[in-house]
Structures are given as C-alpha cells and as structure tokens.
Amino acid sequence: MKKKRYKLLLFLFIGILFSTQFLSFYQEFREEKKVEEFLSSSESSKKEEEYIAVLEIPKLNLKKGFYSYESKKNNVNKNIEVIETSTMPDIENGNLILASHSGTSSISYFKNLYKLEKGDIAFIYYKDRKYAYELIYQYNEKKDGTIAIRTEKNQTNLTLITCDKKNNTLQNVYIFKQING
User: How many CA atoms, within 13 angstroms, populate the side-chain half-sphere of residue 83?
Assistant: First the structure.
C-alpha cells in the first residue's frame, strides 16, 4: 500500500514538474515569437496593441518588447513599463525610461541587471531602426515613490529601473548613453 502511495506521489510530482517546465518554455517561446514578429514587420503593418519597441541586452540574453505608455499593457506588473515622462530613442537629448521587476517571477524581466558593468551594451529597436546604448553608470535610490534620474545634458539616454535584489528599500538605476544617433 505504501509503495502505491509513493509511486502515486512520485508520478504527481513528475507531472507537476513537467507541467511547470512546459508552461515556462511555452511562455518563453511565445515571447520570442512576438519579438521576432515585431522585428520582422514593417512600421505600417503594426497594430495599436503590439509592441512599440524591443529592448535587447545581449550580455543578459534579454530580448523583450514593450508597449506605449498609453497602452493598458504598459504595466510593471505585466510587462516592462515605459515611464510616462520618457521620450523615444529618435528624440535628440531625450531619455527612454523603462522599469521592470527584479524578483524571481515570470514578469521579472530585469532580474539580472545587477550583472551589468560599465561599458555593457543595450539596444532598442524602434521604428525599423536599431539604437545602441552603452552603460555609463549605475546608482541606487531610496524606494519612496519618487526617483531622481541623473543624466548628462546634451546626450540621449536609456534609463533602466528595478528593485534592488538584496535591499527592498532601494531601487537600482542604470544609465546608458546612446552611441549611435
């Protein structure tokens, strides 16, 4: 009787493990497909609720699309969020500000930002163009509902914001400078 119970528990455990792995794989596959569709489509064929751009950080193997700040899908609890005061990469001396979680959930797109070092590269694909950015510095800010973005004047920036992995009272800010304008 005990052997049957152990076998049943083992099969249930294996089934649950397989199901979670399959769901994770399926979500990654769907995301890759959406990103590839975005990158291969022309600007005129894009619909309103599709990605407006894609963020790629090769060092972290991150390639994720995001929605306009007017979209209902532009929410840090669902996707990478575009902060409302952002400007897109084609605006000279502007700043595209993106935020995402850094935990362990399926929506923690910025969970590995802590691995970045000065000089690392990120790309934004926007309006059929690829914009390159170089990480110039990183700093921490107190997590209090506001944030001071420290950028240089006369430069186009990409700012990434996420929660600190070790201290839940801090948020990490990564400032990138556009290197192809």
Answer: 18
